[in-house]
Design brief:
mainly alpha, elongated, single chain
């Protein structure tokens, strides 16, 4: 499960980074609607992955 979550987290990061590289509306401090959705997805998956790692260490 952790590996699948990691893959989803990395895919979300790639999608966000790719969007950011081509979007003229997104900046470091503000994002377009799509950019914000991609960032939120990435952040949620990253949090879930890191929390899973912490739980597995216990």
């Amino acid at each position: 499960m952790t590996t699948d979550l990691y893959g989803r987290y990395q895919a979300a990061h790639t999608a966000h980074r790719t969007h950011r590289a081509t979007c003229t509306s997104c900046t470091d401090t503000s994002r377009c609607r799509t950019g914000q959705q991609l960032y939120e997805s990435f952040a949620a998956l990253q949090d879930a992955y890191l929390n899973r790692l912490r739980q597995d260490r216990r």
